[in-house]
Design goal:
32% of the residues lie in helices and 36% in strands. It has 97 residues and is an alpha/beta fold. The longest helix is centred in the middle third of the chain and has 11 residues, at 30-40.
């Protein structure tokens, strides 16, 4: 069974692509995230995880693959996992303002 995950794309006024994830990211739907990131291309990309309630190692693996061109906006409960995994060392991570 696939865990509910909704992914939507938008664009900032400066042209930067934004991918918003709502729900949970785990091994059952990490492929959806991977496909969305692949479609976004290799340019700068903001990934909004503020409405993401869970992120497991499968989701982290996908994010690591794209770490060179992403900025993560993460809910406070996800930030410790991003730090422990080391992702925050190679990708920009910030909390919503």
């Amino acid at each position: 069974m696939t865990t509910p995950l909704t992914l939507s794309t938008d664009q900032r006024p400066d042209g930067t692509a934004v991918l918003t994830a709502v729900g949970e990211i785990d091994m059952s739907n990490a492929g959806q995230l991977r496909d969305a990131l692949d479609r976004a291309g290799g340019g700068p990309l903001v990934i909004d995880l503020t409405s993401c309630e869970y992120l497991d190692s499968a989701g982290l693996t996908v994010l690591f693959t794209h770490a060179d061109h992403i900025e993560l906006v993460a809910a406070p409960m996800l930030v410790p996992g991003l730090k422990i995994s080391g992702l925050s060392e190679i990708a920009a991570v910030r909390q919503p303002q």
